[in-house]
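Dear support,

We are seeing what looks like truncated structure output for some complexes. This example has two components. We would appreciate it if you could run it in full and send us the complete token output so we can diff it against ours.
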Amino acid sequence: MTHIFLAKYALNKKYITPIDIKNDTSTFMKWIKFKLFFRMNFRNEIKSFKGHSVLLSSEHCFESLSSFDEVLRLKKLFTGLSTEIKIIIYVREQTEKLCSLYSTRMKGGRTIKMLSKDEFSRVEGFDYNEKIKVWEDVFGIENIILRLYDKEKLYNNDIVDDFCKVLNIQRCDSQVFLENTTLNAKQCEFLRLVNIHVPSICEYKVNSLRSEIEKMILVKNIESPPISDLISSEYQRVYEKSNKELSKRYFGEYKELFRMKTLNAKPLVQEDVLSKKDGQDIANQIIKDNKDKNVPLCKCIAAIFDVEYKGKKIPMEYVHSLNMNKSDKYIFQKIRIRIKSFIKRNEKKIYRM
Amino acid sequence: MKKNIIYFHIGTAKTGTTSIQSFLANNYDVCIIRDIYSQNIIVVVE
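Here is the complete output from our reference environment:
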């Protein structure tokens, strides 16, 4: 589930999404209209509800809002609606989060390579200490509930059980929720090479062809090192001090906030993870599974990884002829403008994943 | 009606947010779920 509207409401700068472009809500007046309309409806909805407590869930608020003004705007949205506001934040060790996020980005159609240590040190939102301080300044540290996302530390080793415990809700189901699958290093690299030529969004819609390729990759049993082999143990020291400060404020001791997994001293070179032959083997398997079911998919894969489809080589022109880049370029152009203004505002080089 | 508490779960990303939201959405009998512009507002009614 993707919830962006609360964050969108509170952001200083206009946040342009593909949905805005599709719905033509990208003009300034329409933006103002959205803000007024959202505020009114949001508050009316909460007011009209007769229960005693309200729970909102939106990770975009943490990821997207970075300044005091923005978080304060969010707080003002709740003015007079309740006697107390409690902010629940789960944090995950940054290198683990990086690996999981990198896999998500590949599934989302991005083409970036694994971050260098320097880029990792500048990722927006990874310095929890700095970011949570803003929320403390606005809502008060006494209203922040900080939890560690570490299976061994979660109540019953389960995120849902832990969340219910925080809220003091009795859990009466025994459902197990499937976690998002994290790709391994070879799957990531294969998908990254696909993403370069086959965009995830086409004509403001999800590109079904690329989604099919992604599904194929997810179910394939490909032997590979994990994504964490693309980073080194040095990465784990980047946020060490900052995490300790957070630990001191919330758990009373200046010590490691997270348990660290063992990482290699030297990372693998990303280009070497998937050799040309590896890529071609995976491509041939996908083509074999889909031979007559999905011809464009097979042809795309054959062209990108330079293998044959029904005994013939497929030129890259075939992929280009599908003309899949048109709207995507426009969207990214718009997003680049937003990122540029964001960086300028903060006067600090920030890396957004 | 003024509420006692507003709980605001803000993630962070990659910390099981999807599981938490799926659990809340699936437990309609303990939660009332409202949709405002695709923004799920989950109201707990214990």
